[in-house]
Write the structure tokens for this entry.
Amino acid sequence: MGEYAYVAGANDAVKIGTCENMYWLRFEQLDDISARSAYSLDPRDPRVWEGIRFRFPFPDEDGIPVGQHAEYERGLNIADDALAESITKHSRVQFLSNQHGGAGRGGWNVMLPCPLSPEARELAEDGTRIMRNGGRVGVDIQQQRVWGKGADAVLAVVVRCAGCGALVSFPTLAGAAPIVEACIARANGTDDRDAAERWLTIAQRITAGYNNPPERIRQA
Ligand SMILES: [Zn+2]
């Protein structure tokens, strides 16, 4: 279901999300919302925070108003399968046997553990051959969500497994440290000053979500 809200200065409600995903709204943009829209949740209400996720504040999107982000489900890829394999939650992935004709035309539709999950590693150890032919690897930095209540609350980073699409939140900075370190490593590993700056800012924003989260989170 689409979620809408009114933004200061606009007459019509703008779309801010779908179900639990506030695709077009950063947490810090809650102040830009002037009124809730009928039949939509009010993202300013702390009671709904537990069930929703906000757009990650990508530095190259600073200044884009609520509802105007171009790529709704944006994820910033970190192409490192070790990161994906370190996350604890994965989904099942659908594999079809009728893609190439011939002996594979049985029409089977099999749900298997994400190839980057511990379950898949067990299958491989038992002799199941799991191979990859291109595609997206690693994890995508995608969202933030409120975790905890009161003085302990944080704005936790949410990543998506590129293998299965599972969304994983890190309730602590220690848990998110591999993601932060990967961003810093990318900043250090490029000669492109703008790109380095963006990676460092992303690392800082992830860290700030834990060490210095927006005040309204802890006041709620
Ligand atoms: Zn996965």
